[in-house]
Design goal:
The complex is a heterodimer of chains A (about 110) and B (about 110). Chain A is mostly beta strands. Chain A is about 0% helix and about 45% strand. In chain A, strand 9 and strand 10 form a beta hairpin. In chain B, strand 7 and strand 8 form a beta hairpin. Chain B is globular. The chains are: A mainly beta (about 110), B mainly beta (about 110).
Chain lengths: ~110, ~110
Amino acid sequence: AQRVTQPEKLLSVFKGAPVELKCNYSYSGSPELFWYVQYSRQRLQLLLRHISRESIKGFTADLNKGETSFHLKKPFAQEEDSAMYYCALSYSSASKIIFGSGTRLSIRP
Amino acid sequence: NAGVMQNPRHLVRRRGQEARLRCSPMKGHSHVYWYRQLPEEGLKFMVYLQKENIIDESGMPKERFSAEFPKEGPSILRIQQVVRGDSAAYFCASSGGTMSEAFFGQGTRLTVV
């Protein structure tokens, strides 16, 4: 069955430190991978998707098909990055977007 | 474009009552998804609908829960005879199709007392 795994429920780093939020997926075909973010008291919103290959707010994510991973990275964390982050998977024959359980990122000043 | 609109934002129901949650998708979107978020847990898929059709309801509890997306009007998630365990945040998302970006509403927080 297709699933998305985010092994860390909570990640706490100091401001200015590098951040890596882990995401692994299980799907044998060609998936579409996303990262969504939910800031405090705001709605869930798309942060980035792997096909666009862009950097948003300093975040990047590379799809590694060999390791079935789509880790989210940022070289220097900022306090405003504190939020809940969800990795998500979709694929051509899918009828839904599958989300991981989320990682709460906390940036300490 | 006002985005995905959910109402009410907060809903309190007594055990045994019915809860009706509404979701108006973004203009031009015909795909609607409902997710449930329990405290300290991630988003759990419930149901995926297109206009007048349920496409995938594999995440819906077998009893008391139903969803619809009529030709006119919002999508409705209906919970009959609510129990305390139904207390959660319910999120709706819409998209223009599978593998497209999903846009989320602000959610309805259901509290069963």
